[in-house]
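Schema walk-through. Below, the input block comes first and the output block second. Nothing else is stored per chain. Lengths vary across the set, and this one has 419 residues.
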Amino acid sequence: MARKLVVVFKRPTTKKNRYSYYVKIWDDIRKRYLTPRSAASLVKELRLDGQEFPSNTRNGAHKIGEAYYRALTTQPCIEEPLFIEYLEKFWDWETSPYIEAKRARGHRIGMEYVKANASYVRNYIAPAFPTLKLSEVRPYILENFIMEIVKEGKASNRTANAIIDAFKIPLKEAFRQGITQSDPAANVRKFSRNSKPKGIPSDEEIAGFLRQATDLRIRCAIMLGAFCGMRLGEVQAVTLGAVKEYEPSKYSLEIENSWNKLEGLKGTKNEKARVVPLPAMVYKTMLELGASNPHGSEGFLIYGINPDAPLDRAAIERAFDKALIQLSLDGRYDTASREEKESARKEWKERKITFHSLRHYANAKLRGTVPDATLRKLTGHLTPAMTDHYDHTTIDDLRALSKAQDEKLLGTIEANKEE
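--- output ---
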């Protein structure tokens, strides 16, 4: 039976007893109707005269549909992209127009972030929607999908929120660019964070970590995290060339870079450089470590096998994890059973103690000893209320922070050292 080339039908609007006319066109090559389009949107797209082509009557909508059919048959037919194809191209670091445009406009977007989103698309979204067209995506489809993976325990609330971003950002951009007629993800809600806050070690435990870390690189990394509030990527990027003397026998560290396995050296998390004071104990350890660096004292302080890269992030985290377990086992790591090690690891894991906890420790210990604006100069935290003035650390800031470090951080550590 021959199909009608143009079909007109009504769809209800959000207003009671109100309808809009839609048209759909038969594609004789693919033997199916194309995705329905609203008559009103086609008037704008095809630049039709609204009086000659009224979108609020059936006859007018049919005339609009005929004009739409003529426009389609006089130009090459473009295949509708699959939802998953659009997402994969969107999060492709090398070829994505979105990423290229964002970087061209001077906006930050990291390769690690893009790769993470690509993995959410690959591992969660692609298996669920292998044949769904981009134009067929609807809010209820996305809601049902995300609720299902959480209910079935396939993802935590935090991971589910990351998956939502992996489709929400591309769909918003598709609507902005006019690729789709609406944004089906606009009202998809995120989940509350159900994870525990990051644990903070005690003074005694910080002193214990330093005792158990026999590798000088790991001991220095722990000091930089706990006493200078540095992120692990920032610790990896440190070189002795960033150390400056700001007063006689008083030293500071310029933190301008972070290390990422995918991108190498890059800016800090918020692209803001900062200067932090170095306690004497940390400065001494850094000099000792630099002198033992097989690649030369000017290379990465937390050095690895490759002179062009620091010690791998995973290696530092494993060594820190080992220090935690050794502390729990009173140094019996080599003789302890696997069950004993797993039991000790579980205790630290339940408290959510990780290398990043050292940064939380520094922030918590110094909070209240100096103004928050001064403390942010050490941690590198930004808030909407901060002004550019707070990005410049003065000598007075360094003196205040140095005093707080000595009193609140180094003092308690010295008191907990084993004789």
